[in-house]
Amino acid sequence: MADNMYEKLETASAKTREAMADRQHLSPPPTHARQNRMRIATRETSCWYILWGFVLALCGLSILVDRPLLFVFLREPDFKDQCTQPEPHFPAKNEDLDKLVDIIEGDAFRNASVDRLSRAVQIKTESFDDMGEVGRDPRWEVFFKFHGFLALTFPLIHEKLQVEKVNTHGLLYTWKGSDDSLKPTLLMAHQDTVPVPPETIGSWTHPPCGAYDGKYVWGRGAADCKNTLIALLETLQLLLEANFQPKRTIILSFGFDEEVSGRRGASALSAFLQERYGKDGVAVIVDEGAGFEETWGTLFAKPGTAEKGYVDVKITVRMPGGHSSIPSDHTSIGVLSELITKIESEQYPTRLVEENPYYSQLQCGAGYSDNFPKKLKKLLADNAFKKPSFFLTCRNKPDRLALEAAKQGPAIKYLMQTSQAVDVISGGIKTNALPERATVTVNHRINIGETTKIVTDRLTSIGDEIAKKYNLTLHAFDDSQEEPNSIHLSSTVNKLEVAPITPADGSTNSPFTTLAGTVRAVYGKNVIVTPGIMTGNTDTRFYWNLTRHIFRFAPGYDADDEVGLGKIHTVDERVSVLNHVHTVRWFVTFVRNMDEARFDTDGGSGKSDDLGVGSD
């Protein structure tokens, strides 16, 4: 009986054993009972060791395969499902309209197109940062000559379509459709160009005056973006000649000051259009933007569905002047230099949120590119599985996907990072006078998922540190006036938050699907269409209220041309004529496809489509 009691004691909990022993006044258990108890304890300890060993092994495996712990045994997602490619989208058969493809590809059209584009480039339409108001600054008057050229070059358009001028130089062409319930297609370009510095003309391979060398047209505006403007007018001229009768209204909108932020041109045009068609009154907008990119062994078309934000910050340091022979320890220029060094010593973080179109391109690359980097694919898969509530890794990690993608170069890095560039600086007026005022302007392009506040907060913090060090007063973004012995921070009127993201799901009936299907119809099914992102800004910044479906896209492609956007705003700007011809073909196909498409957003704009009132 005692042995039986000891056995009960051994299988009971510690507290129960103590209580039972007290009640029974038991003596210590015999040797064999103590041995049983030790064996049980050993088995329990072994189980814990095995469990912890298993966890450690999983952690080791996680580190070995470079994958978060919970995702070690999960299969990679099907990235093709996350980058649906619509079938090539061809317009309905029409004998007269179908002949346009052969006409566009023919020598006669090519030669005529070269002449039109060359003459357009020859007419200088430069815009400058210090331009005054329209009607007061004579430099705007160059656009009158350009308008005359367009009227003579495209007589059928100016005869058949509604042509309106907005704020004197903004051009609006409207081809009224037969069905008012269908929202218009809006196609855009800008007339102005950046100047050609005279001292750089000798560095050009061919003079920047519309020269044609058998492959390229050279000059300012050849690629940004008189090529698009001429291609759009050629598109409508061809459709008019083929007796096309649109159901959906077609609008061309040409601003004249895009290169200086569009506040007189695009701003006035967008307000005019919103008054006519109402908020969300347009089906789709296509403006200048990203084009094609060959990477990872795959050709991607990258219509821009987002634009980074923008803010210029002007920093002014005011300090006492005096004679240079008796200088202070630190002048305004010296203090400003220290502030600039502090700003440049640290970059903004590299982050890739899922809303960023480049995230979509990574998914498309992982799904369709045989040469897509394995490490990027692994990190992308981990990100697809990740949920904040249960995400677990054996190490604390930053945004490894963004950092790995950024290794491809600055052009990729700044798709995922707020940029900063010290662009303009001034200070001092004489070598023997201490500078009382020094200023610098720092340009920033805001990353998707962030706001301009990330810039103003950081610069305020840096400015406060420097101000305290030199006993200066800080005025940071408080709309105050400059004052002596101070650091003054302010943002310019061009401040702009990140653009709304355009819907870009290729599996739905949407303008993106129509655009992507048109790309694949013109260039073939080997082209993968993915949303793109613009690091710069376009005139579309003023058109956000007209539609959610805004695409910044250069639809021309020449497989033998590697220039891309690399030569705009600089020496040797040029465009391949084959690129230009393909641009016309793409717009002709897109206009026809949009005319046949029907979207849930159609059904009238809520405004009267009255074209009887113009604006000049």
Secondary structure elements and pairings:
Blueprint lengths: L1 H10 L2 H11 L6 H35 L29 H11 L1 H16 L19 H12 L1 H6 L1 E5 L3 E6 L9 E6 L18 E4 L3 E4 L6 H16 L8 E6 L10 H12 L6 E7 L1 E4 L2 E4 L2 E4 L1 E10 L13 H13 L12 H12 L5 H12 L14 H7 L3 H4 L5 E9 L9 E10 L6 H17 L3 E4 L9 E6 L19 H13 L4 E2 L2 E3 L15 E4 L20 E3 H20 L20
Parallel strand pairs: 3-6, 3-7, 7-18, 9-16, 10-17, 14-15
Antiparallel strand pairs: 1-2, 2-6, 4-5, 5-19, 8-9, 11-13, 11-15, 12-13
Helix pairs in contact: 1-3, 4-17, 5-8, 8-17, 10-15, 12-13, 16-17
Protein name: Carboxypeptidase
Keywords: Carboxypeptidase, Glycoprotein, Hydrolase, Isopeptide bond, Membrane, Metal-binding, Protease, Transmembrane, Transmembrane helix, Ubl conjugation, Zinc
Subcellular location: Membrane
Q: What is the CATH architecture assignment of the domain at 95-128 and 141-289 and 538-596?
A: 3-Layer(aba) Sandwich
Q: Which overall shape is indicated by the principal axes computed on the Cα atoms?
A: globular
In spatial order, strands of the major sheet run 1-2-6-3-7-18
Largest sheet, described in full?
Answer: 6 strands, mixed
- The overall pLDDT, averaged over residues, is 89
> In what range is the share of β-strand residues?
15-25%
- From the 3D structure, determine the CATH topology of the domain at 95-128 and 141-289 and 538-596: Aminopeptidase
Helix percent band: 25-40%
What is the straight-line distance between the termini?
113 Å
Name of the CATH first level of the domain at 95-128 and 141-289 and 538-596: Alpha Beta
Structural class: alpha/beta
Number of helices: 17
- Low-confidence residue ranges: 387-396, 612-616
Radius of gyration: 33 Å
The beta-strand count equals: 19
CATH superfamily of the domain at 95-128 and 141-289 and 538-596: Zn peptidases
GO molecular function, one term: metal ion binding
Binding site for Zn(2+) 1: 224, 259, 569
Binding site for Zn(2+) 2: 190, 224, 287
Subcellular location: Membrane
